[in-house]
From TrEMBL:
Family: Belongs to the ABC transporter superfamily. Macrolide exporter (TC 3.A.1.122) family.
Pfam families: ABC_tran
Any coiled-coil regions, as ranges: none
InterPro entries: AAA+_ATPase (IPR003593), ABC_transporter-like_ATP-bd (IPR003439), ABC_transporter-like_CS (IPR017871), ABC_transpr_LolD-like (IPR015854), MacB-like_ATP-bd (IPR017911), P-loop_NTPase (IPR027417)
Organism the protein comes from: Limimaricola pyoseonensis
Listed GO CC annotations: membrane protein complex; plasma membrane
Entry protein name: Lipoprotein-releasing system ATP-binding protein
Amino acid sequence: MSETVLKLSGIQKAYNHGKPNEVSVLRGADLAIVPGEVVALVAPSGAGKSTLLHIAGLLDTPDKGQVEIAGQEMTRLSDRRRTLARRADVGFIYQFHHLLPEFTALENITLPQLAAGKPRAEAEARARELLGQVGVEKRADHRPAALSGGEQQRVAFCRALANAPRLLLADEPTGNLDPDTSDRVFDALMALVRGTGLSALIATHNLELAARMDRVVRMDHGVVA
Ligand SMILES: Nc1ncnc2c1ncn2[C@@H]1O[C@H](COP(=O)(O)OP(=O)(O)OP(=O)(O)O)[C@@H](O)[C@H]1O
């Protein structure tokens, strides 16, 4: 049994290697998140939050350093095994909802479960339960275009949690919403995360939201402080 859900050690990442425009974004970033812990990642624009989240979520690989999820070292896995680990272990939420426009809210949450091999009835029941938890069960049969911005994000949260990941990574999850909506949608996200005991790393510019998480970490000159 591992004591960390996510452990990043000595992560280095540069873009445009060897070119005049080379930019060294991460310079030995370390971060450990324990089960059930919700951590705010705060940094100025361009400091490398998205880069760190992509590496933590196995969407990108570091130039140096280790990424462990639930005690398993991921950087040396084949691309295929890393993709499987990502699908099983990690849920992502972005600033924009990225829901599939031609499918209903319910279908958007059901589809990733079907792809993971779950029977349809079970997948739909879980989708309805998640929609209920974030207060949009009455919108289950609406397509994303017929939902408000806050409702779209709530559905995106449900989709991210549909396959019960160990780790949730969120990049400015309420950054597109007006302040009032942002607060309420953030409450819904926290209730969902707390209800499942999930671990989360949530990048935000909003210091009030950050203060409501268990711990705040900051990025400065390519390291996490
Ligand atoms: N694919 C890429 N190629 C070249 N440079 C990149 C690439 N992706 C990011 N960068 C650069 O790396 C730095 C960090 O980018 P990143 O998106 O991780 O920052 P961020 O902290 O998430 O910023 P924001 O808060 O504005 O989203 C920036 O200077 C950016 O221009």
